[in-house]
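Supplementary Note 2. Why include the ligand at all?

Several targets in our set were suspected to adopt different conformations when bound, so apo predictions alone were not considered sufficient. For every target with a known small-molecule partner we therefore ran a joint prediction. The input for nicotinamide-adenine-dinucleotide is given below.
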Amino acid sequence: MKVLILGIDGYLGWPLALRLGARGHEVIGIDNLSTRTFSEEVGADSAFPLPNPEDRVKEAKKHLGIDINFYVRDVNDYEFLKEVLRRHKPDVVVHFAEQRSAPFSMKDYKHAVYTLENNLSSTVKLVYAIKEVDPTIHILKMGTMGEYGTPNFDIPESPFVEVEIKGKKDKIVFPRWGGSVYHWSKIFDTDLLLYFNSLFGITVTDIMQGPVYGTRTQEIVNESLRTRFDFDETWGTVVNRFCVEAILGLPLTPYGKGGQIRGFISLEDSMEALRLLIEHPPNQGEYRLVHQFAEIYSVRKIAEIVKAAAESLGIETRIQNVENPRVEAEEHYYNPEIKVLPSLGFYPKKNLKDEAKAMIEDLLPYKERLSRFKHVIMPKTKWRR
Ligand SMILES: NC(=O)c1ccc[n+]([C@@H]2O[C@H](COP(=O)([O-])OP(=O)(O)OC[C@H]3O[C@@H](n4cnc5c(N)ncnc54)[C@H](O)[C@@H]3O)[C@@H](O)[C@H]2O)c1
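The joint prediction is reproduced in token form.
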């Protein structure tokens, strides 16, 4: 297949390019390197130094024998996006090219507006570009389990639910509640994709993914192939942040009570799930919603697992709950359904306990580099000032 990855330079985009290339698919990617730039804006950087795009492509060829076509451009350049679709005729476009940090979106009005403009505009432009160039192209769009918030009822793996109000029944979009402007941008993306699917009949896989953790995939066989790894308060997701805290001798810091429950997935399992969804597209004109996670944990439990992993490597650490900078339920019900990925034969091969140890092992050689960014790990961005 021919796959166009928007956001190919990112934490998920790069290993997906390697996975698909290694499977014999033709990979084309676009990225404006904004995560690199914005990470520097908050005084942080990737734990692993990143080669520039040109070198990344060369290293992929050298170690895996794969050819990747990498364009350093903004996907919001509509004419360019259409030109790439025309030139390469992809079967599927994977859309990762969004501002993906909740704290970044909550810094001030400028960051909130940027997040909404960048994320919604790229989704709408992609839909129209596909409609103009070839409406049969499958859009695989990455949303987040965070779109649902934490409702006090089970979360179905379906965009619609039947409701009965005052004796009358109808089908409505399942209610969602974002916990940041970033999460609202993902909710609006989903609404737009549902709308354009019904309007133009475009084929969509809309993935609700839980936070991803990990440093390894089958194809990362050399340091030069590593994907970015963020651990600061703005860009780092919880497991990745805790692993670096342990290495730097900082306490592991669950926000608030730490009873926030989420569905997590390792980088390796996320790549495998994405591969399956790309190789098994929905029917033409279908909108397919997918829940993508492997294990469900509270943040408190994650801190305990990372602490045990660090201790198994001789690193003493402690857990210290800190004031929650976010506005979110700290104890709640959580029960999302998951059936699409298992129906495609997906089963998780990794677990947090083993992966946390592997992550710490991979990060330890970079301890000196990590310690330079110690000051950007503790939460500073507060949802309510
Ligand atoms: N990492 C996770 O835990 C996680 C969990 C759920 C959902 N997601 C979603 O998955 C997607 C990928 O996440 P990630 O962790 O790889 O993030 P990332 O920030 O590492 O990667 C996104 C890439 O998109 C690029 N980008 C952003 N806007 C662009 C634009 N206008 N034009 C071109 N390139 C642009 C960035 O430079 C970056 O390289 C995001 O949409 C994110 O919201 C991630």
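The chain has a mean pLDDT of 97. The CA atoms of residues 258 and 299 lie 5 Å apart. Comparable summaries for the other entries are listed in the accompanying table.
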